From TrEMBL:
Native species: Kalanchoe fedtschenkoi
Protein name: 4-coumarate--CoA ligase
PROSITE patterns (UniProt xref): AMP_BINDING
A Pfam cross-reference name: AMP-binding_C
SUPFAM superfamilies: Acetyl-CoA synthetase-like
Length: 514
């Protein structure tokens, strides 16, 4: 699709939004796979002066409902189904179950819907028919102050409710700056990164490619298939973004064998801790092009630590703070260790970061990110929550979360969210603790559930049955992508003097046993 064709489609959808009679600044949600239509809708909402609410298409109805409630969304765009190979997974029905406001329903295939929709909901064909006479007519952008919200995204906290993080009109430039500075994205490039608009890397991909004059390559289907590998080849992708669990599957299945990835100038990796062996294998798919490690957060709008094409890269490590960011590793006394010294500890960030969030919709921003943090040169440092190591040769390595959240397949989730569901999964359970445990050789965290049973004399509960119960409950009520790797039975959970579960202690105890 050319830029002209793309722009005219965005204009047309923006005109269509005017027929919904919503106040400027209203929130409009998107719950769709990341495809051409969803990207067009995303940019049209912003062009017309509304606020996008990003919802991942993998979420259950309760999770969709929570995000619609917190954001006060007035409408939502959703597909009727999600196509996974030959399977059709219902999406519109989940949105209806979530008691969504007005839904504009897009067919996953063809032009016409094959389902009945609620009274008041609008089929995509009918929505677009309202403005067909305006095709080609430029839509005059709605001017907004720079601090106005453009997008509401969600990131799990430790309270069980997802944090609602607003992006402003400045945040897109943070994403674009990172792409230009660290991945060298430029005019003529073709950028691919399997993701979704419900996660920050979806909007990041839109801005990092288009604002830098590059093309976006969007694949309809699973990135774990040989079809995706051929798509990268045929689209002549120059910058390929991945998450480590995708690379692990490619390596084990060898599904990219025979693909010519010689057009790739660099890879980028985000979402989880990566593995040296797997990334050496990945580099070998494209004549050992560099892999830029990239770590950030939804609340930052991009990365805080990254690799760079201007520096020698070390596999599964970061070489520099991201442009405009400063990093501090806190020692055992809670103070930053000297920047020229190696060490490991909780990561803190300099408080001034281009494009980073300054407010939350449903929590106290200061309480979450600044309260109790050390002061450096008169400024309170910003909390992030990851444990980081600075090596003797100046590189950085990630060691997972320091707080009660974890990273599962690139999705940050609260332990409390998982425990709430697991506690109700079986009558024998007294309480559970959910922790993310890294594999010994590095790579994505594995979900381990520590269980205390009600009847302490039952020394041999069926661990496979518990594991299956947990997986069924989590995949139904939270996210179908989550999977329990191990269940362990404990007589009790370690707690602080104020009765808080010490998940960090459990993580240390169970890491060697996985």
């Amino acid at each position: 699709m050319t830029l002209r064709e793309f722009r005219e489609e965005v204009w047309l959808v923006a005109h269509g939004l005017g027929t919904l009679d919503l106040e400027k600044g209203s929130a409009i949600a998107i719950d769709m796979p990341m495809n051409v239509r969803s990207v067009i809708i995303y940019l049209a909402i912003i062009l017309a002066g509304f606020v996008v609410v990003s919802i991942a298409d993998s979420f259950s109805a309760p999770e969709i409902s929570t995000r619609l409630r917190i954001s006060k969304a007035k409408a939502i765009f959703a597909q009727d189904y999600i196509m996974r190979g030959m399977k059709s997974l219902p999406l519109y029905s989940k949105v209806v179950e979530a008691k969504a406001p007005i839904v504009i329903v897009i067919p996953a295939r063809g032009l016409e819907l094959c389902i009945q929709i609620r009274d008041g909901d609008i089929a995509w064909h009918d929505f677009m028919s309202r403005v067909k006479s305006l095709r080609g007519l430029e839509f005059t952008a709605s001017e907004q102050p720079i601090e106005s919200f453009s997008n509401i995204l969600f990131s799990s906290g430790t309270t069980g409710d997802p944090k609602a993080i607003p992006w402003t009109y400045l945040t897109p430039f943070k994403a674009a700056a990172d792409g230009w500075c660290h991945m060298d994205i430029r005019k003529g490039d073709v950028v691919a990164w399997p993701t979704n608009l419900g996660w920050m890397m979806g909007p990041w991909l839109v801005y990092a490619s288009l604002l830098n004059g590059a093309s976006m390559a969007l694949y309809s289907g699973s990135p774990l298939s040989s079809g995706f590998g051929k798509f990268v080849q045929d689209a002549k992708v120059t910058m390929l973004g991945v998450i480590p669990s995708i690379v692990r599957t490619w390596k084990s299945s060898n599904c990219t064998a025979g693909c010519n990835w010689s057009s790739v100038r660099c890879f980028a990796s985000s979402g989880e801790a990566s593995n040296v062996d797997e990334y050496l294998w990945l580099a070998g798919r494209a004549n050992y092009r560099p892999i830029i490690e990239y770590c950030g957060g939804t609340e930052i709008g991009g990365g805080f630590v990254s690799g760079s094409l201007l520096q020698a890269q070390s596999l599964a490590a970061f070489s520099t703070p991201s442009v405009g960011c400063s990093l501090f590793i806190l020692g055992s006394d809670g103070s930053p260790i000297p920047r020229d010294k190696p060490g490991i500890g909780e990561l803190a960030l300099g408080p001034i970061m281009f494009g980073a969030s300054s407010t939350l919709l449903n929590a106290d921003h200061y309480q979450v990110y600044f309260k109790g943090m050390p002061i450096w040169k008169g400024k309170v440092l910003r909390r992030h929550g990851d444990v980081f190591e600075r090596t003797s040769n100046g590189y950085y390595r990630a060691h997972g979360r320091a707080d009660d959240t974890m990273n599962l397949g690139g999705i940050k989730v609260s332990s409390i969210e998982i425990e709430r569901i697991c506690n109700a999964a079986d009558d024998k359970i007294l309480e559970t603790a959910a922790i993310g445990v890294p594999l010994p050789g590095g790579g994505p965290e594995q979900l381990v559930i520590a269980v205390v049973v009600k009847n302490s004399t039952d020394e041999n509960p069926d661990l496979n049955q518990l594991k299956n119960s947990f997986n069924a409950a989590l995949q139904t009520k939270l996210n179908p992508l989550f999977k329990v790797s191990k269940v362990v039975i404990l007589p009790d959970l370690p707690r602080t003097a104020t009765n808080k579960v010490m998940r960090r202690v459990l993580r240390q105890q169970l890491s060697p046993k996985l």
